[in-house]
Design a protein that fits this description.
The protein is mainly β. Helix content is 10%, strand content 66%. The protein has two helices and 13 strands. The strands form two sheets. It has a ten-stranded antiparallel barrel. The chain is elongated.
Length: 274
Amino acid sequence: MRRHTVVTAILVATALGAFSHAATAQEETIPDHPVMRDRFFIGVGGMWSDSNVSANLNSGTVGLGAIIDFEEDLGLDETNLIALFFFRMNLSERWRLEAEYFKLDRDKETQIPRTIDWGDLNVPVNAFVNSTFNLEDIRVSVGYAFFKRKDKEIGVGLGAHVMDIEAALETRNFGSQGAQESAPLPVLTLYARMALTDRWLLNVRVDRLSLDTGDVDGSIFSSATEFIYQPWRHFSVGIGYRDINVEISSTSEDWRGKAQIRQSGPALFLSTTF
């Protein structure tokens, strides 16, 4: 997990350094990139994600096997291809609305290497367990550009990651149990974008917030660094790196326990502006 945090920090620092350098450079012509002036941006793509999930489900007591690593203990795939969807609309010269969506469903049966406690289940070592962990995230944000030029923009936003998390364990001889939690996690956003040329654009975004809403105590860090190449007027290709780290502690009836979720990796997408 530290490795991915370092990668994200390097990418964000490099991108912000490029913004700083461009702001002070003397250029004869100012780049005119369609993403900077078009009202709508719509994209679809995929993220080759490195996944790490650990969680527990309490039944009143917590044993040594209560914290479960869904990849190491239950054999869920560590790398996954996730579909991504983007939408952005400029509401005015400085205001914008944006939304993103992804969903990851995983399940697998494996023979567990240790004793596992999950809610009322106590599963002994070498038992066969079919595990499921599904994650759905809708990110919505409204942003305001406090600095805006023809070729560059820096702004802040307020939004939320609306996450739906579902986890379940099913055994052949020891029963089954599942849990589900829907957690809207508000976030503060800092974003920046800069046209490097008429066809190349750099886009950076960071979301961060911790919040206690009573039944759910959560924190989230999300970042994206992207380079967008637009060879034709209404068609572009993007490549970048994305990272999302969520920690949730719930005392609701649907899920009494904790979950830590990490999705990070390179992304490739196609988009249009108009």
